[in-house]
Here is the input.
Amino acid sequence: MSRTIAPDGELPTGGSSSRSAGGTATASGDARQERPTRPSDARERILGAATRLFYAHGMRAVGVDLIIAESQVAKATFYRHFPSKDDLVIAYLDRVDAAWTGQLHAAAKAAGPEPADQLVGLFDALATACRTEGYRGCGFINAAAESQPGTAAHERTVAHKSAIRSWVRDLAVEAGATDADKLATALTLLLDGALSAGALDPDPRAVDVARATARHLVDEACG
Amino acid sequence: MSRTIAPDGELPTGGSSSRSAGGTATASGDARQERPTRPSDARERILGAATRLFYAHGMRAVGVDLIIAESQVAKATFYRHFPSKDDLVIAYLDRVDAAWTGQLHAAAKAAGPEPADQLVGLFDALATACRTEGYRGCGFINAAAESQPGTAAHERTVAHKSAIRSWVRDLAVEAGATDADKLATALTLLLDGALSAGALDPDPRAVDVARATARHLVDEACG
DNA sequence: GCGCTGGTAGACAGACCGGTCTGTTAGCAT
DNA sequence: ATGCTAACAGACCGGTCTGTCTACCAGCGC
Here is the structure.
């Protein structure tokens, strides 16, 4: 079961937590670690480390001590910003929600002005996500696997999936689909399946098939 | 995060671990618990409890102490049968594999002699699974969410998904599909998506849509 | 100067984790 | 009777978990 996780350098996402946001990066080059005494970004560092670690290893597998070490923050600071680990978990899920929803919207927009094309364009976001190093499936589905139906984490997952489906349905209505509900459901099923397959199937053609199938379903429903 | 799990009675799967297999159930009715002194089924009790608990709560959330308590077994007995928790986890996954593969095969068989109908029949197994109380999605996808790419648990998941897809492809070949690979991939994507949606989407129509879409894809590919 | 805010370091508590160990008992074959 | 096997009960170990607490420090507005 291997309950512990090495404190650093084993993550597939690569680069050192992206901590150069504010500019003027403590230019005096003598110190070893140059921990940013720049105030008020402690919360951001915590959430950034938690996002990376929770996604890569699972929420339960990552302890607060590791997050604290990775974000270079004092324990009291951690608990000032997030009164409990659960609060951090839901902040993490909110961030995943915003990120994935944003990528989906961007991919739809990039696919052109036609709603029918935008419905297919969603699968470009999928392809991009699956290709990124350290891809480990849908963060929400993974979170649901680690939480119980009554909990806040689980309900965020349900709400997220529902919001995506509702947005896809609106797009399907715009595209003039004969049965927008059915088309939206089929597309989101395909999307969720590919989201899992992208992490489990070594063959990357699965996402191509997902996209092609989506194209086919959309063309057929929108005449 | 609520790390602990109540020792009994909170599981959605219902009934008291099905421990009346061997007949002659210690008919002397004086004792309270009637733990089966019937020899050699200790391993089965452990694996049964683990299967129920791992699926319901996640592998990481369930400690060996709880499994030991639920299966009414001594700790030494537990570790005699399963040298480590990891061994139990893979035994659990093997059991889930056998169960789900069996249900899929049975549903295909029940759908009739035509391979094309059998491909659609898979989705009957899905519908049945999603309707059962305590359904929590695909045990393998959930397991993958709790394990790392290199580990045995993760590789069992990959192997399981690969085996299912390969079997579906054989069925698609038998059915005379124009592109059996593509059809099999599309169907398994749909299946995996619906497996997740069945646990997350309160609306049960998603599985109907999955089945209808499968019917459509099969009809089209097999002319 | 003074207090407030937001940060640092780290000891500590109490529960739980996987796993080992000692010792006991029942059934059964020799 | 003896010895083997498989089960039992449960104390114990080192380590990890979340969360609390004390103590100190830097900047800033008053």
User: Anything to note?
Assistant: Residues 9-39 of chain B have pLDDT under 50 and may be disordered.
